[in-house]
TrEMBL record:
Segments crossing the lipid bilayer: 6-27
PANTHER family assigned to the protein according to its UniProt record, in alphabetical order: SYNAPTOTAGMIN (PTHR10024), SYNAPTOTAGMIN-6 (PTHR10024:SF45)
PROSITE patterns cross-referenced by the UniProt entry: C2
InterPro entries listed in its UniProt record: C2_dom (IPR000008), C2_domain_sf (IPR035892), Synaptotagmin (IPR001565)
Gene Ontology molecular functions: calcium ion binding; calcium-dependent phospholipid binding; clathrin binding; phosphatidylserine binding; SNARE binding
A single GO cellular-component term on record: plasma membrane
Statement: the UniProt record of this protein carries the keyword Transmembrane: yes
Protein name: Synaptotagmin-6
Organism: Buceros rhinoceros silvestris
Length: 441
């Protein structure tokens, strides 16, 4: 009986062992491959979502949930087994499709009025050649957008421009002069002593300076020092006398213009000094020495005024009509602070004056009104060879008349003068009127 019981136990144990072996083989052959396939599939989905999240990470930094999910996905991808090649290819195609769709929906569309402007811009961004790798970009390295403004660049530019202006103002130097008024003879004496630290205007690193002196608003009486060769610290020591009543001193201004002499071209202006209140420095009863900074200037700060006239051409009759309408804000040429202006129009052909005509004289005014027509007969075939020189003159009963300012119109003129002439030719038989600024001869 004992042996029979022992045999029955052995049989039962062997049967259980066989069942266990069968179950192990079944799990090994069926369950494990299916589980590995599921994990690989899940990993592919996680890798795809991680790639998409990494592309948008610069635009969604505030979304902490997305960042934590991305970190978890990256951590899983680092510890997961190798992904098959076909899964990587499908995953890359999926990422590229998602990226193209996302860029098409997020990139702002350009307006039609900017298309022509953008054609001139360099190709700064090639979307088709971008690298869609799986590397995670650093959060601190945000891509720079094309339209982003960098204030530091503009700030640096403005600082540079300010420094340039300050440097230009500093390099104009100083000038020393004295003022004294003779009450008995009613004469103001201006003595130009010296200039210091002038800027170099010549190629040799030097200048040939001289000084012009005005007592505004009178520009008829002008004085000028001698020219000093090749020096930046000239000593003039010259005196000039302006007859002026004592009661007018408060309204007069002393204007000093420093020039560099050039034998073969127009003289270069170094700078100017304008002393508006003569009694600011002293009572002028005794000689007073004054030092002033020379302010940077390219031309004498004198507003010569403007002239308004119309042009009209009749091609069938070959008649050009210039109507002088009025002037405004002319430069005062007399001691009284006014001028006696009239307008002289010269017809030029190849630099030679063919005809000249003039308006009437308007007395004691800086804003004269004329409304006078001046007519020239010019054949249509010669219109591209002629030009008009309009000169505003100051009439002087004693002496010669002085030019206040000029302007020129014609095919060979510059700026507004050429545009006005072309507009007249484009609209024949129609008067075309414009304001023209006066310039020096």
């Amino acid at each position: 009986e004992l042996s029979v019981s022992l045999l029955a136990v052995i049989v039962i144990v062997c049967g259980l062992a066989l069942v266990a072996v069968f179950l192990f083989l079944f799990w090994k052959l069926c369950w494990v491959p299916w589980r590995n396939k599921t994990i690989s599939s899940n990993l592919a989905v996680l890798q795809s979502e991680a790639a998409c999240n990494k592309e948008n990470m610069a635009d969604k930094l505030k979304d902490t949930g997305a960042i934590s999910f991305l970190e978890a996905a990256v951590k899983i991808s680092h510890t997961s087994p190798d992904i098959p090649a076909e899964v990587q290819l499908s995953m890359k195609d999926h990422i590229m499709r998602r990226t193209r769709i996302q860029r098409q929906t997020t990139e702002p569309a350009s307006s039609t009025r900017h298309i022509s402007f953008k054609r001139h811009l360099p190709r700064q961004m090639h979307v088709s050649s971008m690298d869609y790798g799986m590397d995670v970009p650093a959060v601190a390295e945000q891509p720079t957008s094309i339209g982003r403004i960098k204030p530091e660049l503009y700030k640096q530019k403005s600082v540079d421009s300010e420094d340039t202006k300050k440097e230009a103002a500093k390099t104009c130097g100083k000038i020393n002069f004295t003022l004294k008024y003779d009450y008995e003879n009613e004469t103001l004496t201006v003595r130009i002593l010296r200039a210091f630290d002038l800027p170099a205007k010549d190629f040799c690193g030097s200048s040939d300076p001289y000084v012009k002196i005005y007592l505004l608003p009178d520009r008829k009486r002008k004085f000028q020092t001698r020219v000093h060769r090749k020096t930046l610290n000239p000593t003039f020591d010259e005196s000039f006398h302006f007859p002026v009543p004592h009661e007018e001193l408060a309204s007069r201004k002393l204007h000093l213009s420093v020039f560099d002499f050039d034998r073969f071209s127009r003289h270069d202006m170094i700078g100017e000094v304008i002393l508006e209140n003569l009694f600011e420095v002293s009572d002028l009863s005794r000689e007073t020495s004054i030092w002033k900074d020379i302010q940077y200037a390219t031309t004498e700060s004198v507003d010569l005024g403007e002239i308004m006239f119309s042009l009209c051409y009749l091609p069938t009759a070959g008649r050009l009509t210039l109507t002088v309408i009025k002037c405004r804000n002319l430069k005062a040429m007399d001691i009284t602070g006014y001028s006696d202006p009239y307008v002289k129009v010269s017809l030029l052909c190849d630099g030679r004056r063919l005809k000249k005509k003039k308006t009437t004289i308007k007395k004691n005014t800086l804003n004269p009104t004329y409304n006078e027509a001046i007519i020239f007969d010019i054949p249509p075939e010669n219109m591209d060879q002629v030009s008009l020189l309009i000169s505003v003159m100051d009439y002087d009963r004693v002496g010669h008349n002085e030019i206040i300012g000029v302007c020129r119109v014609g095919v060979n003129a510059e700026g507004l003068g050429r545009d006005h002439w072309n507009e007249m030719l484009a609209y024949p038989r129609k008067p075309i009127a414009h304001w023209h600024p006066l310039v020096e001869v």
